[in-house]
Write a structure and sequence with these properties.
heterodimer; A: about 210 residues; alpha/beta; Rossmann fold; three-stranded mixed beta sheet; B: about 290 residues; TIM Barrel
């Protein structure tokens, strides 16, 4: 196990989207993954896979990504094919726009928009807790389903449903994860999802380490 | 309904649809949250907030609970002195390095700086109690600066015959603070609603009457709060056995339940409680 872990590629951990960089870096350390933190004034070069954890409001996160034209550089790099993993708001910013911040443009790297759960008495918003994700198409990996930890009021709706890799159910099916080209993204928090989260991260890491 | 059909685009964008006929439209699990009351780097637990006794090393306990299938953990710092309180930051860092599930820290948090320091140490959420009663704007400050997702408001409440607050009380519950020694005259339900409006992400509702008594959760209280608040309610106080958890979820509609004594005293493990919940048809995460 240890040898396999040491074979994971080193990654760049982008700190520009707030919040949970600490828990992601602790998780990478537990997995034995080497990483460098990167920010607006020290952008990733594109040679290493990029992880973007995000916490907070879509508008606030986009504003900090836009500082020093970081988002432009990130976009150019990702269009060049650098493997990317977005987590939570780090997933949402891939899209064109969000109901959370009307008029604010996302990165527009995946076509679609981010919408809010429609609250009813049985579905509280935010969704907080463990929900089951189910693979919804032929996956390259072998993780078909499992419980992961969500904290979100908004979720992404890809224009192309084929981009969705896992669905979960909260007042109806929603996109819990996507995989399209070099983009992988999780609405949930793999770094807080126990063994299941670590398995999903390892799968991504081993795919991008090939 | 086939999965392909779910994925068919019916409108401009993928719209939420029910996955299949058996789906209740909600896959979210009920959460079991062991609570570790800590003071001076050790875990302690009292009855009715008094008579504290030492029940073990918090980091080891935390890891045990994670392995048993705990969904989250709560650390409540009940340190009496400044020297004791200073130990909490090292403890939180040690816990954050070991755990791969979320955890909340509460107790003694007075300012936004306290909150930021705990989050920096690796806490996922903070829980504020009497400081928010003293200065409700603290809830807004945390929600704006750090996000509602990390802002838990803990409310200790007890039943009273007449609530003191002049304008139309909404419940028979009063907020108590300072370890239950001080009644505030504040209607607990209106206070919870106020916290929600100020941006709280969750309410941790402790029944002062039930806490530490092993008499079961305070079902009428939990039911009132969880059915009326649009944010998750964590029920706390009084857990006796797996049946208490079945009741608080199935009958009172809690989103999560917190307990200390029954887990610390190894009367029941988290896994045993969850197995019983699953038998009774309550959705839980089974590892």
């Amino acid at each position: 196990m240890k040898t396999e872990e040491l074979n994971f590629a080193a990654v760049d951990l982008v700190t520009s989207a707030g919040g949970n960089v600490g828990s992601m870096s602790r998780c990478l350390t537990r997995l034995g993954v080497k990483f460098q933190t990167k920010g607006n004034f020290d952008p990733p070069s594109g040679e290493r896979p990029v992880i973007l954890p995000g916490v907070g409001a879509f508008g606030t996160v986009m504003a900090s990504l836009n500082e020093n034209k970081f988002s432009e550089r990130l976009k150019a790099m990702l269009k060049g094919g650098t493997p990317f993993l977005g987590v939570c708001v780090g997933m949402q910013v891939l899209f064109d726009e969000s109901e959370e911040a009307p008029g604010v443009s996302g990165l527009g790297l995946v076509s679609g928009k981010v919408v809010r759960y429609r609250a009813t008495r049985v579905h509280k918003v935010p969704q907080i807790g463990w929900n089951k994700i189910v693979a919804c198409r032929e996956m390259t990996g072998d993780i078909k389903e499992g419980f992961v930890y969500f904290v979100n009021s908004y979720y992404a709706c890809p224009r192309e449903p084929g981009a969705i890799s896992y669905l979960a159910d909260y007042g109806g099916a929603f996109c819990a994860a996507l995989q399209v080209g070099n983009f992988t993204a999780f609405q949930f928090h793999p770094e807080k999802s126990g063994d299941m989260g670590e398995r999903l991260l390892k799968e991504w890491l081993s795919n991008v380490s090939k | 309904m086939s999965q392909n059909k779910v994925l068919d685009r019916t409108g401009e964008f993928f719209e939420p649809l029910i996955l299949d006929e058996t789906s209740q439209g909600n896959g979210l699990c009920k959460r079991i949250i062991p609570c570790l009351d800590v003071a001076g780097g050790r875990t302690v637990k009292g009855v009715k907030f008094q008579n504290l006794r030492d029940v073990g090393d918090p980091v080891e306990l935390a890891v045990q609970y994670q392995e048993q299938g705990a969904d989250e953990l709560m650390f409540l710092d009940i340190s009496a002195t400044r020297e004791e309180r200073a130990t909490v930051y090292d403890l939180i860092r040690a816990v954050a390095d070991r755990l791969s599930i979320p955890f909340t820290v509460g107790g003694g948090i007075r300012t936004l700086d306290d909150v930021k320091r705990l989050l920096d140490c690796g806490a996922d959420k903070v829980s504020v109690n009497s400081a928010a009663v003293d200065r409700p704007a603290l809830v807004e400050e945390i929600a704006v600066a750090c996000g509602s997702q990390c802002c838990v408001v803990a409310i200790d409440a007890r039943a009273v015959s007449a609530v003191c607050e002049a304008e139309s009380p909404a419940s028979v519950y009063e907020v108590v603070v300072r370890g239950g020694t001080l009644g505030t005259g504040l209607d607990a339900f209106l206070w919870a609603k106020n916290c929600y409006e100020r941006g709280a992400g969750e309410v941790l509702l402790t029944s002062f009457d039930a806490d530490g008594t092993l008499s079961g959760f305070d079902l009428p209280m939990v039911s009132l709060f969880s059915s009326s608040l649009p944010i998750p309610v964590i029920a706390s106080g009084g857990a006796r056995d797996p049946g208490s958890f079945v009741d608080v979820f199935a009958a009172a509609g809690a989103d999560a339940a917190l307990a200390a004594s029954i887990f610390h005293d190894r009367v029941y493990s988290v896994a045993e409680v969850k197995a019983r919940l699953q038998e009774e048809g309550v959705k839980v995460r089974i590892c």
